[in-house]
Amino acid sequence: MSTRTRRNTPSYRCTECGWATAKWVGRCGECQAWGTVEEVGEHRARTTAARSIAEPARPIAQVDATVATSVPTGVPELDRVLGGGLVPGAVVLMAGEPGVGKSTLLLDVAARFAEGPGDASRDVLYVTGEESAAQVKLRADRIGAVAPTLYLTAETDLATALGQIERIGPRLLVVDSVQTLASAEVEGSAGGVTQVREVTASLIAAAKQRNMTTLLVGHVTKDGSIAGPRLLEHLVDVVCQFEGEKHSRIRLLRAVKNRYGPTDEVGCFDLTETGIASVEDPSGLFVSRTALPVSGTCLTVTLEGRRPLLAEVQALLDRSSTAQPRRATAGLESSRVAMLLAVLQRRAGVGLANLDCYVSTVGGVRLTEPSTDLAVAMALASAAQDRPLPQRLVCFGEVGLAGEVRPVPGIGRRIQEVARLGFTHAVVPASPTGPGPVPEGFSVREVTTISDAMELLFPGAGAGPRQKRETAAAV
Predict the structure, then answer these.
(1) 84 - beta bridge partners?
(2) Where is the RecA family profile domain positioned along the sequence (predicted)?
């Protein structure tokens, strides 16, 4: 009897983290999320088969795939990230930090899409829950995003927003933002887990039923993740992250999830007072303009997705006035820079133990790819020697703890990009397949260790560990 009673006792589980409890609670005891604890366990299914089917299943060969053909938005960089444009019926979630330019970009996309190619105008509905209609109109006038078929409504009620969709029948819907809409049929405040789940499900159902492309703006938490339940990212078709520093005009758009295209493309935008513009050739934006060569600087090529970008690393060394030298970085991982300092000290004989080290990138770009290791190391060595590197030179390669320089992907693509920009020399890691085709007049030097790079770029700078071993063996 007790076994049967215990088996029939319902259990409850959090849909976010999986925490289980014997009784229902409003707040998860593990992740502290509200409204995510639901009943689970053994129960009989209550849904039965439908007696009539509105649209029967068809053989996949008879399905018309032209309905899901991408439609260009008029913004080349956004089309690059999405894989050609907006797919009818797709739901795109765009997230980013406050003030990064999400609303400005989507308002510009809405106006361009409404104008259409030639005289083919299309109805677009822009639902704003964060600003009034007059505030959005002021921004539209400032950036030139006014179109006759672009409809604007300031609404926070989901039912009213769905009624606007029924009345207008737009081909593109923009919701700014999904956390501001709320349904009266569901408990909780706007932005809560339950409300966000209901709003997203309703908008996705409307988009699929009407074959209407939907762009959703999503808030982010203080750690950079998208606010709301994780289910939100699973339900939508495309998830994009809009990134950029507040003190820089450059913005980068990345596709984290994309059911209709690649996820390794990056779009580059320039945010100004008059709007946001696509930057189709961003190489050179993250390079300083100096007439004379300066010690402590080195150029590198990083791959953002499949796009090579030229960037500059700057290093400054100064004698420390404290017992613990200062280590400061900007645009680079501090742990990676600390590792390179140790490799230079131990494997290349560069004395940095008693010096304050400041390493930064130019233009606010953040470099996380390991291929920038060699450029950071050469910038530090140049600052330690107070000798500038040769002009028109780039360095890239991953540096290991043993001092070896490891190959990186896309060596040929990086060389082609810097050759197009007018550079003439490159120091690259040695690869079994070689650097690939080299443009005419371009010099490529392969290195296997960081000591080889030091001997090549700073001849006569002093004996490193490799030279010391060779001298000891000769004696």
Answers:
(1) none
(2) 67-220
pLDDT given at position 434? 82
pLDDT number for residue 119: 61
DSSP state of 86: B
Measure the CA–CA gap between 331 and 354, rounded to whole angstroms: 23
235 in Cβ contact with 249 (< 8 Å): no
DSSP letter for 263, please.
Answer: S
Beta bridge partners of 119: none
What integer pLDDT is reported at residue 463 of this predicted model? Answer: 45
pTM assigned to the model: 0.74
102 is in an annotated binding site: yes
Coil, strand, or helix at residue 133?
helix
Tell me if 96 is assigned to a ligand binding site: yes
Sheet of 297-304, strand order: 327-330, 355-361, 307-319, 297-304, 393-395, 425-429, 443-447
SS3 assignment, position 362: coil
CA 339 – CA 176 distance, rounded (Å): 43
Q: Confirm or deny that 103 is annotated as ligand binding.
A: yes
Backbone phi and psi for residue 471, each to the nearest 5 degrees, phi listed first = -65, -40
78, 209 Cβ separation under 8 angstroms:
no
**Measuring CA to CA, which residue among 207, 130, 218, 229 is closest to residue 162?**
207
Sheet holding 37-40, edge to edge: 20-21, 11-14, 37-40
Instruction: Tell which residue, 354, 330, 352, has the closest CA to residue 339.
Output: 352
Complete DSSP assignment for 271-336: EETTEEEE-S--TTTBS---SS--TTEEEEEEEETTEEEEEEEEEEEEE-SSSS--EEEESB-HHH
The two beta strands, 425-429 and 11-14, are unpaired
Q: In this structure, are residues 311 and 377 in contact, taking their beta carbons and an 8 Å threshold?
A: no
Nearest to 379 by CA among 449, 316, 431: 316
Taking the CA atoms of residue 291, residue 297, residue 298 and residue 299 in that order, the dihedral angle to the nearest 10 degrees is -50
Nearest residue to 438 via CA among 414, 409, 420, 412: 412
| Structure token digits, residue 450 | 């960081």
SS (H, E, C) 29-45: CCCCCECCEEEECCCCC
Contact (CB, 8 A) for 215 and 109: yes
98 carries a ligand binding annotation: yes
Residues of the chain with pLDDT under 50: 1-7, 463-475
Residue owning tokens 């709007």: 275
CA-based nearest residue to 425, from 396, 459, 461: 396
